[in-house]
Design goal:
Blueprint lengths: L11 E4 L4 H18 L4 E2 L7 E2 L8 H4 L3 H18 L6 E13 L5 E4 L6 E8 L7 E4 L17 E4 L5 E6 L4 E3 L8 E13 L1
Antiparallel strand pairs: 1-9, 2-3, 3-4, 4-11, 5-10, 6-9, 6-11, 7-8, 7-10
Helix pairs in contact: 1-3
Length: 199
C-alpha cells in the first residue's frame, strides 16, 4: 500500500547556531535600537495593530543596516530550502527586494495576509519569550474542508517563535500571527525574495 502526499506546501525552518547567532543578534540589535531611538516604528496600515519599521514595505532594512552575517545566514537557509524543493537546481541568483522589522507589543497581532508575488518570504525572530504569539499558516487547499474524510487534515499549522529561528515559505501562502497575550515585546525581521535566475 502506498500513499503519496501530492500538492504539499514547503515550509522550512531552522535555528541560527553559535557563534553566528551572537553576531546576528548584535547586527539586528543595532538596527532595533536605532529604529526605536528615532521613533520609526509605526502601526500597520492593514490592522493598526503591530508596528513596522516601514509600513509601506518599500525599504530594505537588511541593506540599510550592516547585517553581513545575517545575510549569510539567510543565504545558507535559502540554499537549503531551494535544494530541498528541487535538488536539480545547480545554481541560482536572487534579490532580497524588501525587508522590515516588526514590533509586536502586548495585545498586538497580525491578520491573515500574504506577500504577493515574492518567490520566497521569510521571518527571523530577534526577540521573543516563545509565548508572545505563534506564526500560523493556512492551507491553500480550501476544498479539504468540504469533505468529511479530508477535513480532519489540519487547515492551520503553527510555529512557535524562538530567538534565532528562521522560517521560509512561499510568498503567496496566507499567514498571520496570534495575539501577544504577554507583557513581552516580540521583535522579528521579515523579508521577501525574488529569484532572478536559476538553472
Amino acid at each position: 500500500m502506498i500513499i503519496e502526499n501530492w500538492f504539499a506546501t514547503p515550509i522550512y525552518y531552522s535555528v541560527v547556531e553559535q557563534p553566528a547567532l551572537d553576531i546576528v543578534q548584535q547586527e539586528l540589535g543595532n538596527a532595533y535600537e536605532d529604529l526605536k531611538n528615532k521613533n520609526l516604528f509605526k502601526s500597520s496600515v492593514i490592522t493598526k495593530s503591530h508596528k513596522l519599521s516601514d509600513p509601506s514595505f518599500r525599504s530594505n532594512l537588511i541593506e540599510d543596516y550592516t547585517t553581513i552575517t545575517f545575510q549569510e545566514q539567510i543565504h545558507n537557509n535559502v540554499l537549503n530550502y531551494i535544494k530541498a524543493i528541487n535538488p536539480n537546481i545547480k545554481s541560482f541568483e536572487y534579490r532580497i527586494h524588501s525587508s522590515w522589522m516588526t514590533l509586536n507589543e502586548s495585545g498586538s497581532y497580525a491578520v491573515m495576509h500574504d506577500h504577493g508575488s515574492s518567490d520566497i518570504s521569510g521571518v527571523y525572530y530577534y526577540k521573543t519569550n516563545e509565548q508572545d504569539g505563534n506564526l500560523f499558516f493556512q492551507t491553500p487547499n480550501k476544498l479539504l474542508s468540504s469533505n468529511f474524510l479530508f477535513k480532519s487534515i489540519p487547515s492551520i499549522v503553527e510555529y512557535t517563535p524562538k530567538v534565532g529561528k528562521i522560517v521560509l515559505f512561499p510568498g503567496w501562502l496566507n499567514h498571520g500571527v496570534h495575539t501577544n497575550t504577554t507583557d513581552n515585546e516580540r521583535v522579528s525581521i521579515s523579508f521577501n525574495i525574488k529569484l532572478i535566475d536559476y538553472r
